[in-house]
Structure formats: C-alpha cells, structure tokens
Amino acid sequence: MAGMGSRELLVETMSELMWERGYADTSPRDVRERSGVGQGSMYHHFATKRDLAVAALERNVADLLPAAFEFDGPGDPMARIEAYLMRPRDALKGCKVGRMTQDRQVREDPVLLAPVARAFAQVHLSWVKVLREAVAAGELRSDLDPERLAHTLMAVLQGGYVLAIARQDPGPFDDARAGALDLLRAAAPSTPNGKNDKRE
C-alpha cells in the first residue's frame, strides 16, 4: 500500500476488513489502526463509516468486474468460459462482493446493497454474452437458455465459496467449478454446429 494517499489507503483498508469480517464487525477504529491514518484525516475524507463502506464496496466491485470482462478476450467462447471458471481464486476468503450479501446491515441498507446488486448484474450480462456466443459457435446446444445458465454458473461459484468455507478446504469449490465445466461440455451438440438430426 506504499505510495497511496490517505483516502485511497482508507478505502483499501476498509475493503480488506469488510472482506475479512463484514461491515457490521468493522469499526472506524479498526480501519484507522490498520491503515495508520489519523481520525482527523479519516473524517476529512469520510463523514461516516457508511460513506467509507460505499467507497470500499465500489472498490471491491471494480476488483471483481475486470475478471468477468475476460469473457471478451481472445479464443473461442468455451475456452474463455473455462479460463474464467478455473482461474486461481482464494476459495477460503470467499467472493469480495458475494460476502457482502451475508451481512445483515448491508442487506438492509439500499445504498450499501446497490453496488453489490449492480456488480452481479454486470457479471450476469458478461456471462449471458459469452454463453450466447458459445451457442452461436455450435459449442453449446441451441435449446439452452443463456440467461438461466448464467445464473446457474454464478450460483455454482458463489455456492462453491460457501461450501469451501464451511469445510475450511478449497476442494469443494474446485469440484463445483470443475463439475460446472463437465456439465457445459455435456451440453455440447452431439454433432458439430448443433445438427442433431443426422444420427450416425
């Protein structure tokens, strides 16, 4: 965190603490102690803990979204889907954004929940786009609903984090995403380009 201004340092620290402990269990004092930023400077930048939390949530969302935009990268759609599903993640820390839905104070505050909801909406759109491309490329069957499948795959990742944390073992997370990939491969057309009418 060297070279950061005090505002950036506060946001980064709040972001980490919310990921580790949640919003309710993070106090302004915790943020000051970890960041080394004084009280006067903190309240100069953020009038309330909630203001700081909103900035930290925006930061966590900004960290999450570039990964989803990898869907727009090179390679065929299924290769991009596989790369996204299997990229390294710290399963035992959970999702920076998904973690916030488990915090009652975040869930009950529309201002705090909004960046979380927006992040998932944007990731969902990225999933739908790449799944539609996979259908168009004949890599997935044309009778699949990309909207529904996008929610399924997002749920597999979020649920995988929960299972891994419960067991304190990344294995269930890795199994869940590998299993999702198995199911996607099983959903490929039985012949290229989805022409199932010609049986061998």
TrEMBL record:
The keyword Protease does not apply. Residues 27-46 bind DNA. Pfam families: TetR_C_13, TetR_N. Keywords: DNA-binding, Transcription, Transcription regulation. GO terms for molecular function: DNA binding. Residues 4-64 form the HTH tetR-type domain. InterPro entries: Homeodomain-like_sf (IPR009057), HTH_TetR (IPR001647), Tet_transcr_reg_TetR-rel_C_sf (IPR036271), TetR_C (IPR011075). Signal peptide: none annotated. This is TetR family transcriptional regulator. It comes from Phytohabitans suffuscus.
